[in-house]
Amino acid sequence: MNRLAAFRTSAIAAAALALSACGINSVPAAEESAKAKWADVEAAFQERANLVPNLEQIVMSSAEQERATLESVIQARASATRPEIQLDGEDLGDADKMAQYQEAQNTFGGALSRLMANVEAYPELRSQDNFGRFMTQIEGQENRIRVAIRDYNEAVRQYNTTIRTFPDTIGANIIHGAEPMIPYEAVTEGAEVAPELNMRSDSAPAN
C-alpha cells in the first residue's frame, strides 16, 4: 500500500509538472502581466491629460496669442480620453483598436508639444514659477509614458513568445485559446519618444 501511495503521489507530481510545463500557468501569468502593464500605460496617458487644465490657466492668463493652439490641445485631449477608444485587457489583441488609441494619443501629444514650444518662447512666462513647475511636470510625465510603453511592449513580447514556443504553446492553443497581443507602436515615427522641451531658449515670438 505504501508503494502504491508513493507511486500515486509521484504520478500526480509528474502530471502537475507536465501540465505546468505546457503553459497551464505560464500563459495566463504572462497575459496578466501584459494587462497590468497596459493599465500603467493608460494611467500615464491619463495623468498627462490631467495636466492640461493647469496649462490652460497659464496660457489663458499670459499668452493671448497662443489661445488658438491651446484650443487644438483641448480638442485633442478630449479625443484621446473619450470612452469609446479606451482599451481594456480583452482588446489588446485588436490591431484596429490599438491603432485608433495610438493615433489619438499621438495627436494629443503632438498638439501639446507644439503649444509648449510656442509658449516657451515668451520670456515672461519662463520666469513664472507656475510655468516652470508645469514644464517639470510635463517633462516627467512624458518620460513616465515612455517607460510605461517600454514595459508594456516587453510584457507583450514575453507573452507572445510564450504562446508560440514549445511546450507552452500546447496549453496556449488547446486550453487557453491564446491570441497574440499588439505592442504599442507610434503611428508616426518618433511619436513614442518623449519630447525635449528646451527651457533655455531666449528667443522672443515673432511679431
Would you give an account of this structure?
By secondary structure, the chain is mostly helical. It has eight helices and no strands. The protein has helices spanning 2-21, 26-50, 52-62, 67-80, 95-119, 123-126, 129-164, 168-176. Helix 2 (26-50) packs antiparallel against helix 7 and helix 3 (52-62) runs antiparallel to helix 4. The protein is elongated and about 65 Å long. The N and C termini lie far apart (96 Å). The model is unreliable at 10-20 and 187-207 (pLDDT under 50).
Please report which band the strand proportion falls in: under 5%, 5-15%, 15-25%, 25-35%, 35-45% or over 45%: under 5%
Mean pLDDT: 78
| Major β-sheet profile | none
Shape: elongated
**Which class do the helix and strand fractions yield?**
mainly alpha
Order of SSEs? HHHHHHHH
Distance between the termini: 96 Å
Work out the number of β strands.
0
Rounded radius of gyration (Å): 24 Å
Low-confidence runs = 10-20, 187-207
Helicity, as a percent range: 55-70%
Number of helices, counting only DSSP H or I runs of 4 residues or more = 8
What is this structure's SSE topology?
Layout: H1 2-21, H2 26-50, H3 52-62, H4 67-80, H5 95-119, H6 123-126, H7 129-164, H8 168-176
